[in-house]
Amino acid sequence: MHLRGTRLAFSASLLSVSIALAAPAFAQDAAAQQATDAGETAAVDDREIIVTGSLIQRPNNTAVSPIVSVGETAIRETGQANLQDALNQFPSFTTAGNANTGGQGTGGRASVNLHGLGTNRNLVLLDGKRLPLSDINGNVDINILPDSIMGGVDVITGGASAIYGSDAISGVVNFKTLRAFDGVRMDMQNSISERGDGYKFNGSLAFGSGFAQDRGHVIAAFSYAQQDSINGSKRDFFFDKTPSSFIGTGTFVPSATNAPTLAAVNGIFAGYGVTGMPATANLLNLGFNNDGTLFTQTGARNYKGANGSNGYLVVGNNVRMPVGQQIDFANALKRKTAFIKADYDLTPSLTAYGQFMYVDLSVHTASGGSLTQFGTLTTIPVTNPFIPADLSTVLASRPNPNAPFTWNGRYVGVPYKNWDENYVVEQYMAGLKGDITDGWSFDFYASYDQSVHDQQLNDAVVKSRVQTLLNAADGGKSICAGGFNPFGDANARALSPACVAYITKSAFSKEKLSQTQAQLQVNGKLFDLGAGPAQIALVAGYRKNSFNYTPDSDLAAQNIEAVIASQAASGRISVKEFAAQVDIPLLADKPFVRELGIGGAVRFSDYSVTGAVTSYEIDARWKPVDALLIRGSYQRAVRAPNIGELFSPQQGTQLVIGTPPSALGDPCDVRSNARTGANGAQVAALCVAQGIPQAAISSYTFPTTATGQLVSGNTNLTPERADTFNVGFVLNSPIQSGLFSDLTLSVDYYNISVKNVISTVPGLTVLSKCFNLDGSNPTYDASNLYCGLMVRDNGGQLTTVATPYLNLGAVKTDGVEAQVNWTVPASFLGGESSRLFVNSAVGWLNKYKLQLLPGAAYLDYTGISNGAAGVSSLPPRATPKWKAVTSFGYRSDGGTLGLRWRYQSAMKDTTSVLTPATAQVGVGAYALWDMFSTIKVGKQFEIRAGVNNLFDKGLPFVASSQNGTDVALYDPVGRSFYLGARVNF
Predict the structure, then answer these.
(1) Cα 694 vs. chain centroid, distance in angstroms?
(2) What is the pLDDT of residues 896-931, one digit of tens each?
(3) CA-CA distance, 359 to 336, in Å (whole number)?
């Protein structure tokens, strides 16, 4: 078969992301030639099953599922240090976890998310086998992959549960290592931003060799990667973002049931020459100037502190500390990996193989100064010797003048709270494969892996020790030098090293995950209808996952400021699986039927906790002429709840609610649209019923932009069920020569519908539904299901929103993905190998709809920006109608020079769905340009260089995000440069 025909048959849309579309590996012989060109040995073993998305080697290696192949060259020439950043440029992917999604101890894991259905609804494999899990929710951290010998990535953009098992509802991402390699390879890359920060380094060394007269082969690879953190203070965009009311000066928080008199407050401020105080001045938070005088945080009356410096900013005439200036929006990372795989032919028909992986990954995240938040708040007795005289006067006017009082503050005298997290991942695998008899073969392997996650929270402020200092008659001077004076910024920053050491600690927590699996696969030929043999694959497998989590004792007791408690937990699940796949070629080499075939698969899975489920798939392919392949498939997919969804302890995280009226905020806040709207009186009554004191309801404000969110497992969950359908075609130009002789086009339609969705209720949805912002609680009933998920403290402040895992409802999405590859000979530019290329991958989203509860109306999240979403949330952080990556340029045997355009269409804000009457501003269309180049010196040496974000495009504003943008989805670094080199010996 000529190359064009072979390319069509194997590709079935094997067009690569970005510039690799210019030279995709469409066929076995093309892949082998590419490997040889790189100085590698690339022998192809015909016994191997190499068609991703199938257990069977189909005629002509045709892939029925839509498959995108991301070539090794493509990954390198994006200039990205991490695989997921290269993949996320492609329309099939929604940005999930990456180096910019850490903070609050979440590790900055690198995860992938197909079609926005969540990181745990696509399966991530290495050479067709499951990788170690990085967390209890079934996610795989692709940071652990041996990128030094990565041969490419195949992405199935449709469901594949019947072929590969649970978790493959939205598709499969199969990372492929080099199949054979002789010699030594060294690779290094450095990158840095135009502003001199964001430095990244990747270095790797790989060895490959045959032995025992080429009966055996071994590959060993070692790599080291490092990237530096970038703090929000280094980018002007974050100057005024997340304006928190927890400030370093400290504030007195009056109790509505024990408030000072209005006369006392007015008298103090009259002495400052401040008049025109509001009627509720006695309920305002009062801050402390460095000279001991007071100021009103709301209104900034008599405020004498910094504004636009030292971390302070007066926003809307209110004194704030923008947290965006404090947070590391890009996390520091160091990764060391070792990977070894080997095989040995025991006999001509029997091969033993093994694999070992070791990863040591350290991630550092920082999320700003600790504040007095979550759990039982610390209080200050009136006997504290540091209380300013003017505040003493105010306190003495209260009905109970001797009662301790609540204070708000940010610990500016203590370093930012930060996490050092270390992951040690090990995987051991051994297998045996070979021939059984003529036409029949087997492959058996077993593996064990474990991931140990050590988390160290540094500079954690211990509530009980702060309370001890505050209660001390001398203000804590006898406990640590100088004691603890929280009144005024200068005093707070003057905290002695001894007192810093006394009130802080490093909190240690540990999580261990393990996975044991074994699988036997048997392949054979059945019968021949004249178009090729019908084939069958039979699979039997067993898998067990377990986890154990032990939190720090102070973390479990909620004795650490600004970090929500986590509880100890453990769990175990196992599954036995049996699967079969058949492929039947029906016709071949007939008029209008160059190839016609059908196939199907079924998988039975018996889970130890949730019972048995069955998935199945049918598919068809038709090639009317050599140049055109039409294919389609239908699948009933299932996903059983994972170990985290079943057994996760109550884990705390932040729920970003924003500051009203520009964001939803706490609906009880007097600034919120819920309070100022037509039903404000009913909202206020509901707020009082929830625990806000009647005396405070007229002036109640929520002090910050986030509250606590509690996520917990649920052993009563049942499996999800999904129907997936895809149909498409691949067209290779039938023209043998000329301008359009090398043109390939693929178009695929996908339709995925998931029922019985396992998810947490979005926290903002809880608030919206409780307070009838979407019409679901018209009587403003405090016993409403969603209102019951909210917890307030004695002062009425919203402390936590519970979001347990539930079988909620459904999600539906469908769209079209098109890819085009056009190459034009250009010998006039420098030789016979010269060519110009234009390549584009375009995704069009027809709909993305979410049903929160069975029977409820579907919410349309098509074209929506949801900046507060987590890495696996439904809905995801973005669902643009259009997404594209296009590259064009010049390529020859001597190198490449090109430009890449990344585009995402405009989106509405998530409030247009949750609170359409008061929808916030959306995000405009976003596009970036990159420049890339390579220079090859023979077969041994290659230099690559480029510029990402060529025109230094800034960050867009994202109303639904706490930080005012989404640093995972959009480029927060700005223009950056990379330079890399590869040497082969």
Answers:
(1) 42
(2) 999 999 999 999 999 899 888 888 899 999 999 999
(3) 6
Q: Write out pLDDT tens, residues 711-754.
A: 888 888 999 999 999 999 999 988 888 888 889 999 999 999 99
- Selection from 53, 68, 58, 61 nearest residue 125 by Cα: 53
Q: Which residue has the tokens 């140049």?
A: 627
CA 574: distance to chain centroid?
A: 26
Give the rounded percent of residues in the chain with a pLDDT score beyond 70.
Answer: 91
How crowded is the C-beta side of 453, counted as CA atoms within 13 Å? Answer: 25
Locate 186 and state its tokens: 């060294």
Contact 209, 182 (CB under 8 A): yes
**CA distance linking residue 676 with residue 547, whole number of Å:** 48
Beta strands in 626-742 (DSSP E): 628-639, 651-656, 706-711, 720-732
CB 742 within 8 A of CB 709: no
Residue 185 token pair: 């390879």
What length is written for the chain? 985
Q: Which tokens is 385 given?
A: 């010797």
Q: Which two tokens stand for residue 955?
A: 């960050």
How far apart are alpha carbons 636 and 391 in whole angstroms? 68
User: Residue 479 — φ and ψ, nearest 5°?
Assistant: -95, -45
Residue 454 has which token pair?
């050590």
Give the three-state DSSP class for 431.
Answer: strand
Residue with tokens 């001894």, as numbered in its chain:
498
Amino acid at 126: L
Among 770, 985, 785, smallest CA distance to 185 is for: 985
According to DSSP, the β-strands at 350-366 and 318-322 are: unpaired
Per-residue confidence band for 42, with pLDDT thresholds at 50, 70 and 90:
very low
Helix (H) or strand (E) holding 470: helix 463-471
| Strand 864-865 with 379-380, pairing | unpaired
Dist CA 242 CA 265 (whole Å) = 29
Task: Decide if 15 contacts 744 (C-beta within 8 A).
Answer: yes
Closest residue by Cα to residue 634 from 727, 721, 719: 727
**Cα 947 from Cα 929, distance rounded (Å):** 9
- Rg from Cα positions in the chain: 30
pTM: predicted TM-score of the whole model, two decimal places? 0.85
Q: What's the CA gap between 330 and 189, in Å, rounded?
A: 19
The residues, ordered by sequence, that sit 6+ positions from 242 with a Cβ below 8 Å of its Cβ are 322, 323, 324, 327, 705, 962, 963, 964
Q: Which residues are 925's β-sheet partners?
A: none
Asked if residue 243 lies in contact with residue 315, where contact means CB atoms within 8 angstroms, the answer is: yes
